[in-house]
Write a structure and sequence with these properties.
Elements (H helix, E strand, L loop, with lengths): L14 E3 L22 E3 L36 H13 L3 E8 L8 E2 L3 E2 L1 E8 L4 E7 L9 E6 L4 H17 L6 H6 L3 E8 L5 E3 L1
Antiparallel strand pairs: 1-2, 3-6, 4-5, 6-7, 7-8, 8-9, 9-10
């Protein structure tokens, strides 16, 4: 029995120029190709590679011990945020680590459009004076949710990983909204919210 093809869509469709011959193209109604590994976004000077090490290998992944990470190519809906992080690294002298994680299952919010597993990216930005973590949720469906900036007083990776885990669990259990009770449990974090306006742009609350 032949099943109909699954169609994926974006609010803002980037063009991806594939540089390998063994990639599987996925049609989305246009000429968008989603590579398995390798490739770049065209239309700007920024190049984003869909490798486990982001930005053509220049950005290492976070070293999480208990949280599942996935290839950057599966972070559908995070493309604009990847560009923002790259631009920040060009402007500010910061060390960057970044990983993409699938959201916990259990609610409708865990999936975009009943087809794609919703993901998030966690970015660690380290300067001489401070270390911050940024949590951005994939929004290919234009879901309204703030970006979180975590300012930890305790730099223990295990504790930060724990807090990120309960924040994501609370987000799914609240059907796509940050759970204030969970935010209040993160006593070692000063948490800032950046609110999205429309499909692009963020503003500090």
């Amino acid at each position: 029995m032949e099943l109909p093809a699954t169609v994926f869509g974006f609010v803002q469709k980037p063009k991806i120029e594939v540089q390998r011959k063994d990639l599987l193209p996925v049609r989305t109604g246009g000429d968008l190709l989603i590579p398995g590994r390798g490739g770049k976004l065209v239309g700007s000077t920024q190049i984003v590679c869909t490798e486990d090490s982001v930005y053509c290998g220049d950005t290492p992944p976070l070293e999480f011990s208990s949280m599942q990470t996935i290839p950057v190519s599966e972070g559908i809906g995070l493309e604009e945020f990847f560009r923002v992080i790259q631009k920040l690294t060009e402007i500010y002298p910061a060390s960057v680590q970044m990983s993409v994680l699938p959201l916990p299952l259990g609610r409708r919010f865990s999936v975009c459009g009943n087809v794609i597993r919703r993901t998030c990216t966690v970015v660690k930005l380290a300067t001489e004076n401070a270390i911050k973590y940024v949590i951005e949720i994939a929004r290919s469906d234009c879901w309204s949710i703030s970006t979180l900036i975590l300012n930890p007083s305790d730099q223990s990776t295990r504790k930060i990983e724990y807090y990120i885990g309960i924040l994501l669990e609370g987000l799914v259990n609240k059907s796509g909204h940050w759970d204030q009770d969970v935010l209040d449990q993160c006593i070692d974090l000063n948490i800032e919210k950046l609110r999205h306006y429309g499909t692009v742009g963020i503003k500090i609350n």
